[in-house]
Amino acid sequence: MWIAFLTICGLIIGTQSSATVTSQLQMEANAILNSGWWNTSEACFNISDRCTWDDIFCNDAGSIKAIKIDWGSKLATPNLSTLNYSAFNNLESLVISGSDLDGTIPKEIGHLSKLTHLDLSHNYLKGQLPPSIDNLRQLNYLDISFNFIQGSIPPELWLLKNLTFLDLSNNRFKGEIPSSLGNLKQLEDLDISSNYIQGSIPLELVFLKNITTLNLSHNRLNGNLPISLTNLTKLVYIDIAYNFLTGILPPNFGQLKKLQVLMLKNNSIGGTFPISLTNIPLLETLDISHNSLIGYLPSDFFTLTNYKTSIDLSYNLISGEIPSMIGNFRQLLLSHNNLTGTIPHSICNVNFINISQNYLRGPIPNCVDPYRVIGNKDLCSNIPYKKIYFEFQTCLPPKKSNKVKHYVFIALPILIILILALSLIICFKFRHTSVKNKHAITTTTTTTTNGDLFCVWNYDGKIAFDDIIKATEDFDMRYCIGTGAYGSVYKAQLPCGKVVALKKLHGYEADVPSFDESFRNEVRILTEIKHRHIVKLHGFCLHKRIMFLIYQYMERGSLFTVLYDDVEAVEFNWRKRISTVKGIAFALSYLHHDCTAPIVHRDVSTSNILLNSEWKASVSDFGTARFLQYDSSNRTIVAGTIGYIAPELAYTMAVNEKCDVYSFGVVALETLVGKHPEDILASLQSPSTQSIKLCQVLDQRIPLPNNEIVIRDIIQVAVVAFACLNLNPRSRPTMKCVSESFATELTPLKTLLSEISLQQLLSQELKALFHIVNH
Ligand SMILES: *[C@@H]1O[C@H](CO)[C@@H](O)[C@H](O)[C@H]1NC(C)=O
Ligand SMILES: *[C@@H]1O[C@H](CO)[C@@H](O)[C@H](O)[C@H]1NC(C)=O
Ligand SMILES: *[C@@H]1O[C@H](CO)[C@@H](O)[C@H](O)[C@H]1NC(C)=O
Ligand SMILES: *[C@@H]1O[C@H](CO)[C@@H](O)[C@H](O)[C@H]1NC(C)=O
Ligand SMILES: *[C@@H]1O[C@H](CO)[C@@H](O)[C@H](O)[C@H]1NC(C)=O
Ligand SMILES: *[C@@H]1O[C@H](CO)[C@@H](O)[C@H](O)[C@H]1NC(C)=O
Ligand SMILES: *[C@@H]1O[C@H](CO)[C@@H](O)[C@H](O)[C@H]1NC(C)=O
Ligand SMILES: *[C@@H]1O[C@H](CO)[C@@H](O)[C@H](O)[C@H]1NC(C)=O
Ligand SMILES: *[C@@H]1O[C@H](CO)[C@@H](O)[C@H](O)[C@H]1NC(C)=O
Ligand SMILES: *[C@@H]1O[C@H](CO)[C@@H](O)[C@H](O)[C@H]1NC(C)=O
Ligand SMILES: *[C@@H]1O[C@H](CO)[C@@H](O)[C@H](O)[C@H]1NC(C)=O
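^ thats the input. predicted complex w/ 2-acetamido-2-deoxy-beta-D-glucopyranose below
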């Protein structure tokens, strides 16, 4: 009966196409019918319709080019040995995955000479890989993962030179990784994980120049972790966890600029943690736990601020202290090491930590869950339930030797008397102030925590929350001198006569307890910053739902108001504008490069540059963006003012110094142009804009300069501004470079201002002349 049917079938096709195609289609039809994979007894079964079946894909001539059977397929389990592979001369892709395939891979599979894609993963295949697989020379994708294939990895696999993807993982392969695999020059993805592979990692793998994923985890590899791995600069994922590797971490890991995942867990890798690992920008997972790392942690590593990053260095032999500067990232696991010293407050920047089982001592920051610090016997706490449940010591008085105790007993009263005396002298200088605050009075930072009131004050005298409320009549509108995105600014005269600006933040909804130790620490750091071009932050107060910052008062208000006021803009002549831009550059350079931890302003704009009565410019509001966002749910929200935000922030969350550099470029240009330079920025790439002359865009409200030095300075500011506005953050100069350029003595240029075009400002010659180098 079948023969009769097939004859009809053949006739139908035969009338449509040439003889060779007919026989090819005929062969395929026969093979499909004989395979037993498809149920020929079903009512709707019609072999002529095979190209429309879910599992079969044909080319235009009706010949089968792909067979795809996977979890979603309605077929019963196919039997690999019943397919006539010789019949499929046009088959390019064969996928039989998650289909409960049993038995071995038949050697006849080698007949599929056009095959480029073979996926037999997630089945129960046994036996060895047939040697005939080497015939599949067109193969670029080979996946036989999650089976029970035994034997060694055939060294002849190197003949499949077009392979880009090779997954042999989760099988029972034994023996070594053949060094011949180094010939698979196109390989991008190599996964041999979860087998019984022994021996060392062949050095020939260094020839896999295109490799991005290397997974050799869960095997029995031994020998050294090859240093040459770091030559494979396209690597994104490296997983060699759960092996028996020895040796040290290559010191130049930092070369792998694309690395996102480095898993070396559970090996015996020694040596110290390489500083170069600190330079990998995209790193998300770093797991070197359960190894033999020794030495100290590099102090600058944890300053990274990729909110996705997770670092696991637990179960090693790392000693020394936890670095005091720790950035914002997801997870830091350091348990079971030999760490000593105290827990830095900055550890609160990390979402999840575990530093248990070390030799840490001293107080536990409030943000730290005690379950994450257990097994450090010298830690202390003054919170009763923590002490009782976790058997921590009491923090005060410091439990040192008796000698120290004595000193404390003698020194403390003396110190208090001294401080009191000093404060009395200061107080006498000013008028009477109310004595409601019973806390210590010093000339350095004072922190008051009085019930639900929390204040930091870093100025002569003491902070009296009530005085401020009184001075502004509870923030009456009459005292309001400005409103911005973050809050309203009030002018207040304190009882001692001093005039300050109060910035009351609005939109503040977080609960008081979220202002933990690290936040207070941060406020303290900001109040301790001193620079002649930075508006002094005297203090900070937080009371129930009122939060305000206390600043030095700047008489002329913001650069924005000056530039947009036609009268003041004229008074604000070229010399003043140039020294304003220079001042901003010095301030930002100081924040980025001279503070113990770099401070990124995040919101440089003309509204945040303030001018005093002498037209001296100062940067204000640095770091305040974070005050608003200081609750764990949205710490990484992009701060900034539209029109000043670096373009890369549209697609990355990494707020860094280079974002400030861009905003500075906008402010500098705006100061020259007299209005926001959005038109110039939008069309800067176009030749017609580039041919515009500089003097045409300069603020027309003030006369063009004729002094050579002023002309040179204007050109310099313009060159610097355009360099800072480079769309590529890496090509922008650092603020240090900018401020050094401004600080360098230069001779006047012998150029006519009227001849300089925007294009020339973008040129390397002028950049070099002004010592602007890219970083
Ligand atoms: C497989 O197909 C080829 C070509 O159609 C044919 O020559 C051969 O006899 C077939 N083998 C079997 C076992 O059916
Ligand atoms: C094939 O289809 C027929 C008719 O639907 C059914 O009775 C038979 O059980 C099916 N055979 C298999 C192996 O599924
Ligand atoms: C099979 O399908 C073809 C065309 O798709 C049709 O001509 C033929 O009659 C069908 N055969 C049966 C037995 O239904
Ligand atoms: C597959 O078919 C072959 C030959 O017909 C047979 O020997 C084997 O037992 C079958 N395998 C399975 C798992 O049914
Ligand atoms: C690799 O593929 C290219 C085109 O994709 C082909 O021309 C070449 O012959 C293939 N190489 C081998 C060794 O088959
Ligand atoms: C590597 O990748 C590049 C870009 O994808 C490609 O042009 C090249 O042919 C690949 N192979 C080798 C050996 O570089
Ligand atoms: C490597 O393979 C293991 C086991 O097969 C798997 O658990 C792990 O996720 C893989 N690593 C990467 C980076 O994909
Ligand atoms: C790795 O790269 C360095 C520098 O590019 C080169 O000197 C060295 O020979 C390379 N190592 C290997 C094994 O190719
Ligand atoms: C580390 O690997 C060894 C061998 O693979 C295993 O016995 C041990 O349990 C692993 N350790 C951990 C912590 O997983
Ligand atoms: C780790 O600390 C323990 C206990 O203090 C000490 O015995 C061991 O030598 C230390 N190991 C290293 C590598 O510092
Ligand atoms: C921290 O690590 C220790 C030891 O590895 C473990 O016992 C403890 O459960 C961990 N704590 C948390 C909160 O995961």
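Residues 402-429 form the longest helix (28 residues).
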